[in-house]
Amino acid sequence: MLGRATARAVQRALDQAPGWLLRAAGGGEGVAEKVFRSLPLEAAATTGNTLAPALEHALGQRPARGARETA
Q1: Record's superkingdom (predicted)?
Q2: Is residue 68 domain-resident?
Q3: What's the structural domain count of the chain?
Q4: pTM
């Protein structure tokens, strides 16, 4: 459950944020870490059991952004 919520939040950020903001945040990994750190997760949530699977899920299914990217 935690991983799915984190993955959804990361995917939404990747889909909606302009390219310059994604680059400034450190790419997909940077966005995922910021989302992970900002969500009110259970104490059992770690980067290994929540962030890593969410990042893999979000980046593995991320659509191409070439046409939407702005400088």
Answers
A1: Bacteria
A2: no
A3: 1
A4: 0.60
